Amino acid sequence: MAVRRVVPNIQSGAAQESREFYGLLGFEQVMNHGWIMTLASPSSPAAQISFMTSDRTAPVNPDMSVEVDDVDAAYAVMRESGAEIVHPLQDEEWGVRRFFVRDPGGRVINVLGHR
Question: Which residues form the VOC domain (predicted)?
Fold first, then answer.
C-alpha cells in the first residue's frame, strides 16, 4: 500500500474568502462539491488543502484525508489493528471509495482511493 497524497481538511463556512486568500499564495480551485472545496498548487498538484462545511455522507468531519493506492487493504489493516472505524468503507457517488478512522490523538482520518 502506498500513500498518494495527504490533504488537511479545514472546517470553514468561508470557502470563497479562503479561495481568494490562498489564491494569493498560488493555489487554484481543483474541486468544489458545494460542501467541500479543494485548492491545489498548479506547480505541485499534490500540494492541496480542503475546506468543508460538513461531510455530506459521514457522521463527522474528517481532520485530514489520506489517499492510498489500495483503500481496501488500508481498511483491512486498520480493522485488524483494532483502530476505531468512525465511518465504514463505502463507495461515494463522487468517485471515491473511503472510510474514516480515528488516530491515537483523536483526529478523524478520511482514508480514500479513487475509482
Answer: 2-114
pLDDT exceeds 90 at position 1: no
Tens-digit pLDDT profile for residues 23-81:
999 999 999 999 999 999 999 999 999 999 999 899 999 999 999 999 999 999 999 99
Alpha helices, DSSP H only, in 24-84?
Answer: 71-81
φ, ψ of residue 28 to 5 degrees: the values are -130, 150
CATH number given to 3-114: 3.10.180.10
Task: To the nearest 10°, report the CA torsion of 57, 35, 40, 78.
Answer: -20
| CA–CA distance, 58 with 86 (Å, rounded to integer) | 9
